[in-house]
Amino acid sequence: MPLPSNLQVIERGWLSANQVYLWSDNFLDVIDSGFCTHQSQTIELLNLKMQVLTDRTPRFLINTHLHSDHCGGNAALINDFNFKLLVPSAEFDAVQDWNEPLLGFSELGQPCPVFSAFGTYQPNTVITLGNLDWEIHQAPGHEDQAQLLFNPEYKILISGDALWEKGFGALFPNNEGVPNIDGAFATLELIAEIEPNIVIPGHGSIFNDVSQALIFAHDRLAYLRKNPDRNLIHVVNVLLKFKLLEWQQCSQEIALDWFKNTPMLQKIAELLNQPIHDLFQQSLNALVKSNAIKIRMQTLFNA
């Protein structure tokens, strides 16, 4: 089944999450806003759409979850288009107070411009975006307050980072050093139960072989559960690669300084009982081996 004519997916990449535009005769709604360094592109893309949808008023901006690659453009879209931002209900107070320890951007060593929310949306309810009704389902794992949006009419799932065609978002350890692998498994079971035909992921292309994606994700979770250190090392590699996506290039010295001062990486070094400099070098070696970064003359380059 094709996507409805009043829904458009903007596939962005791995630094900025995908966006979804939905519109009715009167309004335009947007899901997710990308990373802050891409905000000029985010605005340009929306301006191009508004030139076509001349009679629509920007209405709701929704975040599937509050990670910097999904909400880094919030402030820009609110300021330029007067969107009303809706965030998961459990995150509202942290946003309004801009409670950094709860929001966690600095814990991951990532920037995010300050924004305010207009209201909330809650799990086990239905929200109308464009002219389509979307069921809201909580999706713990990658982010415990993340939400899935499911349209039963077209059987479309907007999965955020809970499910990609090949995997899911990194499972960050909590304050006790434990990732929510059980929550991630429960989210996969929920997706299997609602039986979507089309999945719009937070990153990567739209896909419809949902059963194969679920098998891949289950196998990946089982692999990580078998040896918790694997998951911790994966998180380290993801965070360093993401920083290189943001910076594109930097000296090895600057990267190490960022690494040593990022709380999540400090925590993981403690959990692994490993000097943080050694962990940095280990991650560098792994990323070079996988061709995710290149090193020339003590300078790191995104690849």
TrEMBL record:
Species, as recorded: Polynucleobacter kasalickyi
Name of this protein: Glyoxylase, beta-lactamase superfamily II
Residues covered by the Metallo-beta-lactamase domain: 16-203
Gene3D superfamilies registered for this protein in UniProt: Ribonuclease Z/Hydroxyacylglutathione hydrolase-like
